[in-house]
Write a structure and sequence with these properties.
Low-confidence stretches: none
Number of strands: 11
Strand content: 5-15%
Radius of gyration: 20 Å
CATH class: Alpha Beta
Number of helices: 11
Distance between the termini: 68 Å
Shape: globular
Number of domains: 1
CATH superfamily: NAD(P)-binding Rossmann-like Domain
Helix content: 25-40%
CATH architecture: 3-Layer(aba) Sandwich
Order of helices and strands: EHEEHEEHEEHEEHEHEHHHHH
Largest sheet: 7 strands, parallel
CATH topology: Rossmann fold
Length: 341
């Protein structure tokens, strides 16, 4: 009998990548969404679309009941766990997308609460799933995701796999951080300043990696939490080199000092201490075989972003980039002033 999957928030970058992986594995796939984002052309006609507001618990449980796999890309708060209480025994495997930012630093801080380099969370290298997570019951992305995780695991008998990705990249991303380098290539920049010489490391997560973990979690139901990152944790310099190599762009990377008085050289991955996640648990529990590195998986995301921008203003196409301070990424006058000095 053909297995079937329900993907909540399935038109996003993780949902579409997972749909492709599941279709290739023979699943019947239903993508549930609110209709604000169209399906990619390659999925249209191959999946079933379902109009669904996730906040309507009865609609969610009715849609999910009897599925072999439910992927929830949009659960956010502990209240979002409650509909699954009625589904214990009625779904094969539930996968919920969380975030690596739930990890609590050894200095007692977490990423949402950090105001600068001094109070950025200090984490083990690499971070395993046993590392403590945020316990503060406060508003904010990381505390709410951590509370959601606890609420899910409190439901006895629920076969839930929680995935904790890092900086996600893939086709369909509304906020592809790699735009930091892509735009510089398009603008013909031949010098790129990087704080710390680009040595910073913040774990990246290709959507194809996350999709493979979802597929495997469907085959191996259980109650667990797993990191979901690329095989390597590339440095900022390696990310820049990968983007430029894909675009055939040649530029020199120039080391600049880290400091509070200038944003020059700071990228979306320029953290003051490493954020590197272990994938050993996924290997041990799911038999996961690394899908690829950031360099080997970033190409389709770059191509998709370029196709989406075309002759349009990038701010209009990717408003989500403002979350990462993208409005300040391209102060070329300040860059040239610092580099020339």
């Amino acid at each position: 009998m053909q297995k079937d999957a329900l993907l909540l928030g399935g038109t996003g970058q993780v949902g579409t990548a997972t749909a492709r992986a599941l279709l290739a594995d023979g699943y019947a796939v239903t993508i549930a969404h609110r209709g604000t984002r169209p399906l990619p052309p390659d999925l249209a006609g191959h999946v079933t679309e379902l109009s669904l507001d996730r906040s309507e618990a009865d609609s969610l449980t009715a849609a999910a009941r009897g599925r072999d796999l439910v992927l929830d890309c949009i659960a956010f708060s502990p209240a979002d766990a409650e509909p699954y209480r009625a589904l214990v025994g009625d779904i094969g495997s539930l996968v919920m997308i969380s975030t690596a930012s739930v990890y609590l630093g050894e200095n007692g801080t977490y990423m949402d609460a950090a105001t600068g380099d001094d109070d950025f969370p200090r984490l083990a290298v690499p971070v395993t799933e046993q590392h403590p997570i945020v316990t503060a019951e406060v508003e904010g992305y990381s505390p709410q995701k951590a509370a959601l995780e606890r609420a899910l695991f409190a439901i006895e008998g629920l076969p839930v796999t929680v995935l904790r990705p890092g900086a996600i990249h893939g086709p369909g991303s509304p906020a592809l951080r790699e735009w930091y380098f892509i735009k510089r290539a398009l603008d013909g920049r031949r010098r790129v300043p990087l704080v710390d010489g680009g040595a910073s490391r913040f774990a990246t997560s290709a959507t194809v990696v996350i999709a493979e973990l979802v597929r495997l979690a469907a085959q191996h139901p259980g109650a667990r939490v797993l990191n979901a990152v690329d095989d390597d944790a590339p440095t900022v310099l390696e990310i820049g080199q990968a983007v430029f190599d894909h675009l055939g762009h040649d530029a020199a990377f120039v080391a600049v000092d880290r400091g509070p008085d200038s944003s020059v050289g700071y990228t979306p991955w320029s953290v003051p201490v490493p954020v590197v996640l272990s994938m050993q648990a996924a290997i041990d529990e799911l038999g996961y075989v690394p899908v690829g590195t950031h360099r080997s998986t970033i190409g389709p995301a770059i191509d998709a972003m370029l196709a989406a921008v075309a002759d349009r203003d990038w701010r209009e196409v990717f408003p989500g980039l403002t979350r990462y301070g993208a409005d300040e990424w391209f102060d070329y006058e300040a860059e040239d002033s610092l580099l020339d000095s």
